[in-house]
Amino acid sequence: MTDTMASTIQVQPLTCALGAELHGVQLADAAQDESLFQDIRRLLLTHKVLFLREQQLSRAQHVAFARRFGELEDHPVAGSDPEHPGLVRIYKSPEAPPDRYENAWHTDATWRAQPPMGCVLRCVECPPVGGDTMWANMALAYERLPEHIKLQIAPLRARHSIEATFGAAMPIEKRLALKAQFPDAEHPVVRTHPETGEKTLFVNGFTTHFTNFHTPANVRVGQDFSPGGADLLRYLVMQAYLPEYQVRWRWQANSVAIWDNRATQHYAVMDYPPCHRKMERAGIMGDAPF
Ligand code: SIN
User: Which CATH number does 1-290 carry?
Assistant: First the structure.
């Protein structure tokens, strides 16, 4: 343990990049205690993802804790608990047809004009081994970019699409209906965190292309546009793959992760044999990236 707070929360950083495990705190208490909640909020801004084990947290308490950060949102593809709107069920089972929604590096719902500010994810049931989740620190990923890349991407904006990702495996009518409901969003490639002021690299698995790459500096001849922009985007998206920016968390039932969606990406590792993995996620509404 390297840090102890006034509120008796003990903080154990898990890697040099991001992530800390909290000890000596129950989120059910923080759901009712403003000063405890504010300690956790401050720790989240510092460590970007917080982990807790052995949480005695009912669904109502899960929602109540997450609601302290802000309003919750449902997900158009993954359903929510009918009795607890905003509590999204991410359930895998041997019987259900396989899907591959989570095992891609992503920042949640950047296809929204206002992507979520963060999430609180609780493990209900997990495989005996496998099914970990990984997070990457996108402020560090930005900070360590070569200076000439930082200069090139400073003015760039990019498109984020639910149609190209969740919609890709749908029949055409369903896919177009999804796109009509959730038109592509456009965001800056480098985002300024609204609370810490840090710059973060804000492209991920939902990003399809740059929208304003076509300048004389970037495009000498038309042929530069597609490979030039696509190669640069691929290079940026791949920064999250670097282990130096990551933390990996092994789940147990009643473990919880809280992450800052403005400063991280994550990846649910689907390496386990057909088996039950039940996660419940409260996504907290955020603001428009700038
Ligand atoms: C997610 O991508 O939000 C879910 C992560 C997980 O199930 O581990």
Answer: 3.60.130.10
